[in-house]
């Protein structure tokens, strides 16, 4: 059964990861994000207690 022989598949896996890590990943990371984070001030909501009708 060729699936159990790791000899050809390990080389394919290794070459794929090296290609991804050295060529494709730096190109993908060089893109700027389309939605950069902004410095928004956080707003605090006023919390009012619930008025229970039986108290």
Automatic annotation (TrEMBL):
GO terms for cellular component: mitochondrial membrane; proton-transporting ATP synthase complex. One of its GO terms (biological process) is proton motive force-driven ATP synthesis. It is a single-pass membrane protein. GO terms for molecular function: proton transmembrane transporter activity. The chain crosses the membrane at residues 6-24. Keywords: ATP synthesis, CF(0), Hydrogen ion transport, Ion transport, Membrane, Mitochondrion, Transmembrane, Transmembrane helix, Transport. Residues 34-46 have a biased composition (Low complexity). It is found in: Mitochondrion membrane. It holds the Pfam family ATP-synt_8. Residues 34-55 are annotated as: Disordered. Belongs to the ATPase protein 8 family. This is ATP synthase complex subunit 8. It comes from Anhinga melanogaster. The lineage of its organism: Eukaryota, Metazoa, Chordata, Craniata, Vertebrata.
């Amino acid at each position: 059964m060729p699936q159990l022989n790791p000899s050809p598949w390990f080389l394919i896996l290794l070459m794929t990861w090296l290609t991804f890590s050295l060529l494709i990943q730096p190109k993908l990371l060089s893109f700027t994000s389309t939605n950069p984070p902004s410095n928004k001030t956080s707003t605090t909501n006023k919390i009012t207690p619930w008025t229970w009708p039986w108290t």
